[in-house]
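Need tokens for this chain, all 256 residues.
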Amino acid sequence: MLRPRIIPCLLVQDGGLVKTVNFGQPKYVGDPINAVRIFNEKEVDELIVVDIDATAKGREPDYTMIANLAAECRMPLCYGGGVTRADQIERIVSLGVEKVAVSAAAVADPHLIAKASAQVGSQSVVVVLDVKKTRRGYEVHTHNGRKATGRLVTDLAREVEALGAGEIVINSIDQDGLMKGYDLELARAVRAVITRPMTVLGGAGKLDDVAALVREFDIVGAAAGSLFVFKGVYRAVLINYPNRAAKDALVAQARA
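Here are the structure tokens for all 256 residues:
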């Protein structure tokens, strides 16, 4: 039976692991390789790693870092950050990364998705849409949320799916780091217009938030950053993840 995926999302800046709030205020929380080793032990479903400065600063992906992460990682790995060309995607996949995420480049040149899908397979091409709620609705922003595209997320989601994206990640800028729950209205809007796998990111603060997402969408990716790197009201740094029994119970409860 297909199951929802519960996915830690790690943000990397200057080689260190950080966590943001509303795409700002990055707080250093540790070494990404150490975090990967802990998540290996906890048998996580999948892992997303994003270099949050690569695109904003216009630089290439850090292939050495990616190779080190892939060599250490014992779960499916998705990498994003600084990816603008299909040959970069092909190189990252060759390093042992299962999925490559594109964001700003996919918005600027949607045909990159079709080209990359033809080269590495659509299952390895993930499009991340970072979203803010405006008077017009849910609009996609790029470059760490600083650049408005003027495009509604539903329109872009339809477009990138048609071009061959194997998965679409919907990331709420408004909810990022707040730990107050996912934007389910945003998730509903996107789910209504696409059929490919969808992952939702931004806002999860407790496992009940994950259960609420699974309860409504069932086969979905439930991604989170703060939930899996912080513990308690004082946000002490602690890499954590539900064990298999807790995860099975969560899914069973959500499906009941």
